[in-house]
Amino acid sequence: MKFRNLATAALCAIGVAFGPSLAAAQDAGGTFVYIVQPEPPSLASYLSTSGPIGLVAPKIYDGLFDYDNDLNIVPALAEGYEVSDDGKTVTFTLRQGVTWHDGAPFTSADVQFTVMDVLKQVHPRGPNSFREVTSIDTPDDHTAVFNLANPAPYMLRALSGYESPIVPKHLLEGQDLRSADLVNNPVGTGAYKFVEWKKGQYIRLDKNENYWKPGLPHLDRIVGRFIPDASTRTAAMENGEVLYGAYGAIPNIDAVRLREMDGFSVTTDGYSMINPMALIEFNTTIAPFDNPAMRKAISLVVDRDFLIENIWFGYGKPATAALSSNFDATGLYAAGMPNYPASGDVEAAIAVLDDAGIMPDADGVRGSFTLDLIPYGEDWRRAGEYLKQALMPLGLEVELRYEDVPTWIKRIYGDYDFQMNINYFYQLSDPVLGVHRHYGTDQIRPGTAFVNSSRYSNPEIDALLAAGAVEPDADKRSEIYAEIQSILAEDLPVANVFEMEFLTVYNDKLKDHATSALGAYGPFDRVWIEQ
């Protein structure tokens, strides 16, 4: 299958990008200030999928593809591709004349090194995204041939600058990937060059004058500001200090107010690739969460409707299984899974604990533990307060812990020094890309963020995940994932809480900021500001 549909469709879909509009040309230049919340732990998007990194790094690094809002592939560093008849060879034709920000040429060697030596080794999702890639041939500087053990059509949905950033071989080869200078001083091929990181204040990126898209980017500079206090972020949006806040940067309580004001808009566009799911991770290796009954009771007692309506102001949908209901369109979602009541069921939760012999002591206490909260804003603090209250009728005492991002990531995914953690994950466009990392034994990877922190290991699940990744028959694949969801609904190493709907709040002067399906995780190369 040649890239002919992209070669022509791309000219239509991104023709505006390669030929700026009159309005954009008239208003070219300027500085775009947006919210990055919280401050990133690093800028190494090839090491971590932490949300704040995604707000910055894809402006610096390109992927082989981008994707439009209808999820069509848009060419980026790859101009074209061809898949062999057996699906086991994918040949990418790479864009010529592209240079890294330090002036070195981009070549197929960078692609081979990125996938085989970086993403497959240290990226949270790379081992699944590229699990079937056994080798990459580079017959010339502008051709990369991916050799696969089995067909992997899902891989073509994992090639954005956010999901699979292409990194410079000449700056990383032979380096310790976790401590290399590139971790906090990134060099990419993207629309903007890294200039400065003022800790506690901002990250500044300047226009790449040699960007491979003619006439882009429009802006001279973009600045990601760190504003820890939620009310101060909202005030900065209202007074025009910042023009854009995504991924809950502006709390929903303020977003619903701002959307009624002149000069501001709120959208849920720009999130179609990520399928976000709010969830609870349990450390299944230590008490009390080594007992599935405790995990099941907590999932049963959570009032998902209450959380959505009172903390996220109606944006969301109760989780009903290990997979988002959005996978229903692909036939992979299994409805009717137990232990996911929308409104909570205290009596059922108590019965589960009683039946398991987890009885209250003389003071009515069945257990005490710490709940760690993802440090991404006030909504998550309020969710933690709700969970603390919700577990009291079960005789469960909860202490809340809220730390900075690097400490939290190290605690949960490095040291496994936690009992229960509320968080959110992206299930992405296929379970192989976003869901398998929760549950596979091979995803217990100390020091890699956003993978199997529960350290759940079930040989039956491992076998099903492996089968689901390579099954070409849609009906058989549906059966495999139904069985996966059935088992996980009983084991519950992770209890999904609700399918999230993120809000982006922006000043109406800001134009063309939602042209990629990645939204805030996109390149921002077409953004311009109306004067």
Describe this structure as you would to a colleague:
This protein has two domains: 4-19 and 47-182, Dipeptide-binding Protein, Domain 1 (Dipeptide-binding Protein, domain 1, Alpha-Beta Complex), CATH 3.90.76; 276-500, Dipeptide-binding Protein, domain 3 (Roll), CATH 3.10.105. The chain is built from 18 helices and 21 strands. It is globular and about 70 Å long. Helix content is 28%, strand content 20%. The strands form six sheets. It has a six-stranded mixed sheet. Strands 1-10-9-8 form a four-stranded mixed sheet, with no helix packed on it. With 531 residues, it is of the alpha+beta class. The protein starts with a helix and ends with a strand. Strand 4 and strand 5 (89-94) form a beta hairpin.
CATH topology of the largest domain: Dipeptide-binding Protein, domain 3
Helix/strand class:
alpha+beta
Tell me the Rg in angstroms.
23 Å
- Which descriptor suits the 3D outline? globular
Q: At the first level of CATH, what is the class of the largest domain?
A: Alpha Beta
Number of domains: 2
Average pLDDT metric: 94
Helix content: 25-40%
- How would you characterize the largest beta sheet? 6 strands, mixed
Strand tally, please?
21
Name the beta content range. 15-25%
